[in-house]
Structures are given as C-alpha cells and as structure tokens.
Amino acid sequence: MLTRHRRRTAAALTVLPTLLVTLAGPPAAAARLPEPSVPPIARAELNLLTVAEPRSMDGYSPDRFPHWRLRTPTCDARETVLARDGQNVQRDADCRALSGSWYSVYDGRTLTSADDVDVSHIVPPANAWRSGADAWSDVERRNFANDLERPQLIAVSAESNKSRGDRGPESWKPPLAASRCMYARAWADVKYHYRLTVTAEEKAALAEMLDTCRPQPAGENRK
Q1: What's this model's pTM, rounded to 2 decimal places?
Q2: Which residue has the higher pLDDT, 217 or 152?
C-alpha cells in the first residue's frame, strides 16, 4: 500500500536534504524530535490528502492500537520517547524515567516529573480510525501507535494532552501559538504517510496553522 504511495510522492514532490525542525522549546530538546516536513512540503502533502466525511466509530477501542511496544528487552516506545524528548533523563534498570525535565511544545510548560508527562499521538488513534485505520490490520495499527520514525509520538504535559483528547485540529490547537506550525506540519506528515483522510474543516484548520510558519530563508535546504 505505502510503496505505491511513495512512488506518487516522488512524482509530486522534490525531496532535498534534511532540515532540522525549529520548535517552540529549547533547541537541545527540539533537535531530538522526529522532523515534520518543512512547510512547503507539508502543504503539498496536505493538498494530496483525500477529503472525506468521518467514518463510523463502530468497533473502535484503544485496544485496537496496541501500545506501548517494546523497542529493546526492557524499553517500550513510551520510555524511549521520554528519554528522547527529555533532558538529563535518569532511568532505572527497567528503563523507567526516574528524573529529568521535559518541555511540552503543546503549552510551553517545563515538567520535572515523568508522572506529569504524556506521550501524545499527534494523530490520535480514534481520529485515525475514523479516517481510514478501521480498515487496517491489527499489526498496522500497532505500528502506527508505536511509530518513532515519523513525528507521531511526542512528550507533552499530561494536562494539555488530556485537554485535547481525540479532537482534530478543526476543534483543538496547541495553546502555545508558536507551536501550531509544527503541529500542523506533523499532522499533515503523519496523515500523508498513512494515507488517512481529512475532513474539509480539518484541512482548512491545518492550512490556517501552516500560514503561521515563518518564511523559509532563501537558499535554505528543504526536505
């Protein structure tokens, strides 16, 4: 499924060297995060998404998106993200974060307890279900829920993640306005890679957030 999609991508987009993403947080933390496509590519990806009405939620359960998958014999995807996105993270023998600090790009808070941190799915599983993941296999849904290669998993404040729930960008935006560009880029990237649909309202909200992205300096490499 994705192989044909990549061929279509190559025909539609020019892929150039990687550009480090600039987020609203400390540079050291931002550099560790998976990179969304830069704004021109994110907008092209958004424009290639299929606009459709939400699909039925019949049969949905968070259990249909198994997480967190072990990445090593002791570290699951959640603990991997906590170590990746945090600073000075100390872990125990079972890979659990004991101390450190985490900058939440949703709301601009710095957290010093892992108990106050959620690992957020940029595109929530419930949103994915109603935009095409209902037709996936359980293995495909598990891979989506544990994807560390795309900008799908990010450590944020538990408060901001719970406030968002499974809402899409048409009804929720990061409270920190400076992060809305990043959020829209990441959302478009993930939906494009997984060939998920968007609603008309969702697409318009993403386009509006992409309008907040800073102009790209002339001569800057693009991905």
Answers
A1: 0.82
A2: 152
